[in-house]
Design brief:
By secondary structure, the protein is an alpha+beta fold. The protein contains four helices and three strands. Helices cover 34% and strands 21% of the residues. Strands 2-1-3 form a three-stranded antiparallel beta sheet, sandwiched between helices.
């Protein structure tokens, strides 16, 4: 059986997003939700909600996509969350075209 990897975005109670990668989405979600690590980003931002996830068969692809997502603006993350991938090219353009 092929191993699966998941890149996910959580919506935190303070309306911020947390992006992560795991090979066990359910267990990882419970880890965040139960606050098992007081030093984690999500600990004081619970409860959290999974608003997006996607699957990969290749761990390197999953890690690369997680890193890419982490660097994206909130608007780009929300386009992904809302399955509006077609909005990404415009969101990637500079906000100040005269500069």
């Amino acid at each position: 059986m092929m191993k699966r990897y998941y890149v996910y975005i959580l919506l935190c109670t303070d309306n911020t997003y947390y992006t992560g990668v795991t090979n066990d989405l359910e267990t990882r979600f419970l880890y965040h939700q139960n606050g098992q690590n007081p030093n984690s980003y999500t600990y004081h931002r619970r409860p959290v909600e999974i608003v997006f996830y996607t699957e990969f068969n290749d761990v390197n692809q999953a890690i690369a996509f997680e890193k890419q997502l982490k660097g994206w603006s909130r608007a780009k993350k929300e386009a992904v969350i809302n399955d509006e991938w077609e909005k990404l090219p415009n969101l990637a353009k500079r906000k100040f075209p005269n500069q």
